[in-house]
Amino acid sequence: xxxxxxxxxxxxxxxxxxxxxxxxxxxxxxxxxxxxxxxxxxxxxxxxxxxxxxxxxxxxxxxxxxxxxxxxxxxxxxxxxxxxxxxxxxxxxxxxxxxxxxxxxxxxxxxxxxxxxxxxxxxxxxxxxxxxxxxxxxxxxxxxxxxxxxxxxxxxxxxxxxxxxxxxxxxxxxxxxxxxxxxxxxxxxxx
Length: 191
Prior knowledge:
Mean pLDDT: 80
Largest sheet: 5 strands, mixed
Structural class: alpha/beta
Shape: globular
Low-confidence stretches: none
Strand order of the largest sheet: 1-2-3-7-6
Order of helices and strands: HEEHHEEEEEHHHH
Radius of gyration: 17 Å
């Protein structure tokens, strides 16, 4: 019911011009302002995610307006500005893509990471990850003596998992202990 209400709201916001297509069993909902190349970036990122990790996702909504650029700091302390953001809710992911961004793939995979953490991991997997994230200085960034790839990953264990998942699935650049832990935990997905 919530999904139907969200679709109806988006159709209303877009004067009924919302495009709904199916991609690998997922409904891709996009507003008319989404450029084809931006939609392709989202679907390409989904194609690269492993089937077991995106199981039970229902919808991916792509909106063309984030409203404002935002900044994030990477593990090396470099500040980046971007125009893509996302969020996960229930079994749905929304990607706000305000323009071409090299972070679209990482953003999609970050949101798939939230899906796995919140819906797909066994309780044992969540517990193992939470214990790892909470141990010592692990929640700090690598540059500050911890294990996380970004400041954002230090917000909570869920964000830490999503950030590490995205890095693992995008470029694989993670602290070796963190990489081993997330690979171990990902073997604990519910069937």
